[in-house]
Structure formats: structure tokens, C-alpha cells
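The instructor's notes for this session suggest beginning with a concrete chain rather than abstract definitions. Hand out the sequence below and ask the class to guess, before any prediction is shown, which regions might be ordered.
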Amino acid sequence: MLKVVSPGSAGAESLAVTDVRKEGELVWHSVAGEAPAEGAVVRGELDWDRRHRLMRTHTALHILCGVIWNEWHVPVTGGNMEPLSARMDFEFDPLPEGFAARVEQLVNDAIVRNYPLTCDQPKRLVPFGW
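After discussion, reveal the predicted structure:
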């Protein structure tokens, strides 16, 4: 969410961020509706509930990738992630017999083991002050 504060106004207009992409050192935010005027003051607000759902999904995908790599040595070839919903692509030819049940067992076993999780910031974020 971006809050846009127009010079001389008492309030702020909220605009939903629909996409974020990076081009070189620039970070572009697409918003629903009309973009703020050049020179407008904006302030970003994190949607923590959405971010937390993405973090949980991302962690689950790491577990999935890990168990598939450890069991079959097959890398991820693609995927997509939304809050609490994701798809991962792997190239199996053919798909092993009993694959779904085995993956479910391995993922559940990994979760029960309660491996420690860490959250590290990549060094590339340091120049932005994050």
C-alpha cells in the first residue's frame, strides 16, 4: 500500500501496489488507479498479513525442494508463489511410482523435525538501508 500525500491537503490517498519490479538500481511500483503526480510525497506501508502468508509459503517451498532434491536429485525448473498457494515445477521422466504419497511423507517428516529457520537479508539490500 502506498499513501500519497498531496501538497496542501490534510489527508492521504491510499493506492494498492499491484506489482513491484527492479530494473538495475531502480525499484518500480505499479499501483491500482492513477499514479501519483511527479514530485508527490509517498509513503509505503507493508501489508504484514500478506507478507507473513508469503513467508510461510516460501518456507514450505524450500522444504519441498529439499526433500525432492535429497530423494531424487531433481532440481526445480520453475514455479509461482502467491500467499498460501504455490506451484513448483520439476522434470521427472517418468514420475516415480507413489510419488505424491512419498513427497507428502517426506515433507511432513521434515516439518516434524522442526529444523531451525533463519531469515537473513542479502547484502545487496544494505545500500538501501534495510
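Then share the key points. The longest helix spans residues 48-72. DSSP finds two helices and seven strands in the chain.
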